[in-house]
Design brief:
Elements (H helix, E strand, L loop, with lengths): L22 E7 L8 H10 L1 E20 L3 H16 L10 H8 L3 E11 L2 H17 L1 H8 L5 H16 L4 E12 L3
Helix pairs in contact: 1-3, 2-6, 4-5, 4-6
Length: 187
Amino acid sequence: RGLMNLRYEEGSVYELSFPDGLFDVAYAHQVFQHLRERGLALSEMLRVVKPGGVVAVREVDWSTVAYFPRDPWIDRFIEVHLRTWYRNGGEPQVGRQLRALLNAAGVASLEITASVWCYATREETVEWGESYADRLLTSPMGERPVEYGYATRSDIESMAAALRAWGSHPDALWVFTHVQALGWMAR
């Protein structure tokens, strides 16, 4: 697109390799839900933002999941997924906590909004069902629950099959809430 001032770097949100006040904006999308030290990560993001700059965070709240048609294996997937998330030190309901997190960090001004992600077309539900089935079968998302004794490998395979079948169902629908926070630094 002709952007000349863009580069990608890998690093830890707990120890950003940038000097204080370098950026106008720091943005985290679906990151904080996976972190043990959310306050530390936010402090580090705030450190690299200029006075008057903004920190933006967008996170899901998994307790708001609504889907149809119901399936006991998908219900089990959600229960096991959340339990594993907590055991890993994450917070799948961090969306609802963003206001408190940014208030505790002492931002000068704060704006909170919410949106609903909705998977309602056949293409969207197939993609959602397939992607989560694949994650269960090929990533730590499916390995950790077995390791922790929350599910068997057979359970994981049944959950994946249920997600795929759900995604192909003509009435499939999946929605959940996401919360967005914009926190402005003092000038």
